[in-house]
């Protein structure tokens, strides 16, 4: 077994999702299959189901700062502070020097919301660009949300955002683990953020692709694996983890949500949007090899499935390829409950499943009335939670446009 200085653990979690603003509440809601997807009206576009976060935006900074910054930055600041509090690191300088703390945020899109807002603003003044805000450039640089977190916390170590489409949350967590192992940082705040519901263009583009979900009841619009599925429910959200070496976590007596034991990223190199199940399977196998685990040693797979016909089928094919004879493996999907939070999706979904190490419950995949035969995976937990399961390992899939794939494997921490 590797030395504790090489082992990487998650000791804090701060989040906001369309149905919760902390991990305990989130866990309770997803076990119950409680969705709070609602209808959103967007200028130029109209109405669509969406996941909207309702969190205390001024808990950690003032309205004036929020107006100067971005929605993604506001979400990130909230989640980072909450993660530190959960980790017992509200006064993190007692344990870590600010210049040895890294901030890594995963993003699918950034700047779209701000640009659309400015174009709309100048349209009311005959497109006179003198009305364009001087805050636009710092708002739209890709490192903005991570930078807003550093300013709120006084962190002077490295910060940057990772653009990896909908694999970005996992990618940021992988980056944190790698930087800790290299000794570049002593502690990291890593996660993913999404402000996507602020952009009518994101909705319009998915609709143009025939990939935007619709249902009379918005809570039933996100339905991966179901025969009625008709696309993605766009959601905002955020999740930031405190990530440390096991050695440092033990030294300060931290509680441990889980240990990161394997991860992988690769590329399909085949299509802008259509997934490649062979490459997805390769990514899962690489993560397993790095974790030193066999497929039958995985307790739970949280699927990426978004509710698109081809995407869901491709991932199911990849899972069958890798996990063909694993009777004790359970499978679920979190997007059916909260929608697709883009850059935040992977980490929000991992966060929601980590408590299974302690409570032994597999949360359900909801909104399945007629399971697609091509998505009929063994031990897929459908509509009702499955209690009484010994969960020791979780494999978290997160895939994205341009054929980027990411997998993170977390293991229950059971002592040194």
What would you say this structure looks like, in words?
This protein has 2 domains: 244 residues, Peroxisomal Thiolase, Chain A, domain 1, CATH 3.40.47; 150 residues, 3-Layer(aba) Sandwich (Peroxisomal Thiolase, Chain A, domain 1). It is 32% helix and 20% strand. It has 14 helices and 13 strands. The strands form 2 sheets. The chain has a 10-stranded mixed sheet, with helices on both faces. It has a 3-stranded mixed sheet with strand order 2-3-7, with no helix packed on it. The longest helix is centred in the first third of the chain and has 16 residues. It is globular, with a radius of gyration of 20 Å. The protein starts with 7 loop residues before the first strand and ends in a 5-residue tail after the last strand.
